[in-house]
Write a structure and sequence with these properties.
2 strands, disordered C terminus, mainly alpha
């Protein structure tokens, strides 16, 4: 029986880092960026844009280098924004992290095609970007838009991974461009028959972080930590099935939401039942005899 603990633990760690960091970063981001929360239509539009982007990557190969430039610009902007806002530095100091990222990508990823980029630097930057994009976008979501976005994103992921296979093709194109869109960690315990490592997309890390941050806002930190553990356990169970039986690409969002949704549903029903009981409790008032 094959199993792996490295990727589930990585998912758990990144989710908790995003959750705890959000408490410090969100007030600062809202104060300086003043972005409006997304509505339901915005959440649906975001999922639609993701679908369009994925199909463009796969079927319009001539614009892949344009998309590569957009990815690099987005990653660099994230690095610059967080460095500038939280380090209290001047712009010419804050530009050093994105400049270093671009330099390392061009030299070690593109020109030299060095294993240092493929096996180490790309994963490190991938983890950094997974946390930063979660922190940046989490404040734009509400509890309602998170629930709707989660359902739509999971449905999209299931279709594009299991039905059309388009997501897998898009990931392969992005990897051919050496972009840090996946995080790969070695199998623990090692299983030579299965290969060296397992990979998970940055979108899946973002999804788990977003769900946990919104859970913390709604139900508190302790329950959010429990939910992070539940998502990790669910991911582990699916991963065991994939390693031993299915051996196919599988939507990570489904693996994650299957751990989160039952707990949140139970919590919602419990609190709703408690609220109804409180409303139905008769109030006894003392009367003073006249």
């Amino acid at each position: 029986m094959y199993f792996d603990i490295a990727m589930p633990l990585t998912l758990f760690a990144v989710t908790l880092v995003s959750m705890f960091a959000n408490q410090k970063t969100e007030p600062k981001l809202k104060e300086n960026l003043q972005e409006k929360p997304m509505g339901v239509r915005d959440a649906a539009l975001l999922v639609g844009l993701m679908v369009v982007m994925i199909f463009l990557i796969v079927f319009v190969r001539d614009i892949n280098y344009v998309l590569m430039a957009l990815y690099l610009f987005a990653y660099s902007l994230l690095l610059y924004t967080f460095t500038y806002l939280f380090s209290k530095s001047h712009w010419y100091v804050s530009i050093l992290p994105p400049a270093s990222f671009i330099l390392l990508y061009v030299v070690f990823g593109v020109l030299l095609d060095d294993p240092l980029w493929t096996y180490y630097l790309a994963d490190i930057f991938g983890l950094i970007f997974a946390v930063l994009i979660t922190l940046y976008l989490a404040g734009l979501f509400t509890w309602r838009t998170t629930a709707i976005f989660g359902v739509l994103l999971t449905a999209m992921d299931i279709i594009l991974v299991l039905v059309t296979k388009t997501m897998v093709q898009a990931a392969n194109v992005a990897l051919s461009l050496k972009l840090p869109v996946l995080v790969s960690v070695p199998l623990i315990p090692p299983a030579p028959a299965l290969g060296r490592a397992l990979s998970l997309g940055l979108g899946d890390f973002f999804f788990a972080g977003l769900l946990d941050i919104q859970t913390m806002k709604k139900y508190g930190k302790r329950f959010a930590i429990v939910c992070a553990g539940a998502m990790t356990i669910s991911f582990f169970i699916f991963e065991v099935a994939l390693l031993n039986y299915w051996r196919i690409p599988f939507p990570g969002t489904l693996m994650i939401i299957c751990g989160w949704a039952p707990l949140v549903t139970w919590k919602w029903l419990t609190m709703r039942k408690s609220h109804v009981s409180e409303l139905g409790t008769p109030v006894v008032r003392e009367q003073t005899a006249i």
